[in-house]
Amino acid sequence: AQKITQTQPGMFVQEKEAVTLDCTYDTSDQSYGLFWYKQPSSGEMIFLIYQGSYDEQNATEGRYSLNFQKARKSANLVISASQLGDSAMYFCAMRELWMDSSYKLIFGSGTRLLVRP
Amino acid sequence: ETGVTQTPRHLVMGMTNKKSLKCEQHLGHNAMYWYKQSAKKPLELMFVYSLEERVENNSVPSRFSPECPNSSHLFLHLHTLQPEDSALYLCASSQGGLARSFDTQYFGPGTRLTVL
């Protein structure tokens, strides 16, 4: 079963407007972490924001905020005041126990965001 | 140099060639990772090294051979690859790795590999 689901393969947003990228996850762990990464056309995966399962406050980093709804198992990324440079692929990821002793990131299929001038 | 660097950025090789991808991290981290990103597929973790100890991943074909001589350097040796191995190979590093704790991974720019 898919652990991380990103249902929006592509999205458009007008420059200076806010946009929400959806992410739902599936886990039976009580302690887990959720991440968002940005991947421009150059290929590099850029870490944006992290939310721990026990964090009571939604994470924020500059123009990025994470709308964490634990009961719904969703961790949506909100980008405020979109800029042309925000055009990229965005991946949601979850930290999962792997090989009994380490953690790995499980990535979703990504959402391609295009910011229109 | 800062962050995580990867060389080469692009590589074209034949199926009988032997080549190596290099990754170097300048963050003082203890764990390093290799990921494969194929078209239209989520990122797949291939290997993890923590304090130069490798965590095995039996699903990775033996034609991919990792090497971690120290905590700052990671190699991926390639031999007799197949066209379906063409992908973006991303290296990442993190502070911990095998520790059971939160750990952000920082990625390099990737090597885009094409196997003819």
Please write out the topology.
The complex is a heterodimer of chains A (117) and B (116).
Chain A: E1 4-5, E2 10-14, E3 19-21, E4 24-25, E5 33-39, E6 46-52, E7 60-61, E8 64-69, E9 74-79, E10 88-98, E11 102-107, E12 111-116
Parallel strand pairs in A: 2-12
Antiparallel strand pairs in A: 1-4, 3-9, 5-6, 5-10, 7-8, 8-9, 10-11, 10-12
Chain B: E1 4-7, E2 10-13, E3 18-25, E4 31-37, E5 44-50, E6 53-55, E7 64-70, E8 73-79, E9 87-94, E10 106-107, E11 111-115
Parallel strand pairs in B: 2-11
Antiparallel strand pairs in B: 1-3, 3-8, 4-5, 4-9, 5-6, 7-8, 9-10, 9-11
Number of helices of chain B: 0
Please report the total strand number of chain B as a whole number. 11
- Strand residue percentage of chain A: over 45%
The greatest interface between two protein chains, and residues involved on each side, is:
A-B, 27 and 27 residues
Structural class of the secondary structure composition of chain A? mainly beta
Low-confidence stretches of chain B: none
Q: Would you write up a description of this structure?
A:
The complex is a heterodimer of chains A (117) and B (116). With 117 residues, chain A is mainly β. Helix content of chain A is 0%, strand content 54%. Chain A is globular. The termini of chain A are far apart. The model of chain A has no long low-confidence stretch (mean pLDDT 91). Chain B has no helices and 11 strands. In chain B, the strands form 2 sheets. In chain B, strands 2, 4, 5, 6, 9, 10 and 11 form a 7-stranded mixed beta sheet that branches. In chain B, strands 1-3-8-7 form a 4-stranded antiparallel beta sheet, with no helix packed on it. Chain A binds chain B through residues 4, 33, 35, 37, 42-47, 50, 52, 91, 93, 95, 98-99, 101-110, and chain B through 33, 40-43, 45, 48, 50, 55-57, 88, 90, 92, 97-98, 100, 102-110, 112.
Which features does this protein show?
heterodimer, A: 117 residues, mainly beta, 4-stranded antiparallel beta sheet, 54% strand, globular, B: mainly beta, 7-stranded mixed beta sheet, 0% helix, 53% strand
